[in-house]
Design a protein that fits this description.
- By secondary structure, the chain is α+β, with helices and mostly antiparallel strands.
- It folds into two domains: about 1-40 and about 115-170, no CATH class; about 45-115, Nuclear Transport Factor 2, Chain: A.
- The protein has five helices and four strands.
- A four-stranded antiparallel β-sheet has the order 1-2-3-4, with helices on one face.
- Helix 1 runs antiparallel to helix 5 and helix 2 runs antiparallel to helix 4.
- The longest helix is centred in the last third of the chain and has 41 residues, at about 130-170.
- The two termini are about 30 Å apart.
């Protein structure tokens, strides 16, 4: 089989094989590009009263427990705390996906909202569906996308090469 025929076939079949994973990656990638601009995706970062963080850890847990949507009962329900000293802010990220922004000095809840960027990122890399989907569908789709890129360049270059060859032959 000629290289050009094999390349076209791989290009057509490969494009069909990766269509759905690629669509998911494109849509979620576009959403993630706008996560700082769209409050629906990621809560806007607030500003505390001062630039010091002097809030005791027990008050952080208490403030998180007092936000019913966050479903915090203990430290096990908190995935991470993001400290922003320049803004006087602590972002408490909960296992439930909820984000609570606390003033770093007083412990007052400045903002509380579901953070959707984490599950959008999980969809983007395939891990939201299942770890096997990430490794056995999204990873091969990425490799196939690289092959589609290479075969697409080859299919684009082939007619250019042929035209040059014909022009050269015609001038002789």
């Amino acid at each position: 089989m000629k290289t050009s025929k094999w390349t076209r076939k791989l290009h057509r079949v490969g494009a069909l094989a990766i269509a759905l994973p690629l669509l998911i990656v494109i849509v979620t990638g576009l959403l993630l590009d706008f996560k700082k601009q769209l409050e629906w995706i990621q809560p806007p970062t607030q500003k505390g009263q001062s630039t010091t963080l002097s809030l005791p850890w027990d008050q952080v847990l208490l403030a998180a427990k007092e936000t019913p949507e966050a479903q915090v009962q203990s430290w096990d329900d908190i995935s991470r705390i993001d400290a922003r000293p320049g803004r006087g802010l602590l972002k408490v990220r909960c296992e439930s996906g909820w984000e609570i922004q606390l003033d770093g000095t007083s412990g007052v809840v400045l903002h509380s909202q579901l953070r959707k960027s984490d599950w959008i990122e999980g969809m983007h890399d395939g891990s939201w569906f299942h770890s096997k989907v990430k490794w056995f569908i999204f990873l091969p789709a990425g490799v196939l996308l690289g092959l589609l890129w290479a075969t697409g360049l080859y299919l684009w270059w082939l007619p250019v090469k042929m035209r040059r060859k014909r022009r050269k032959a015609a001038t002789r």
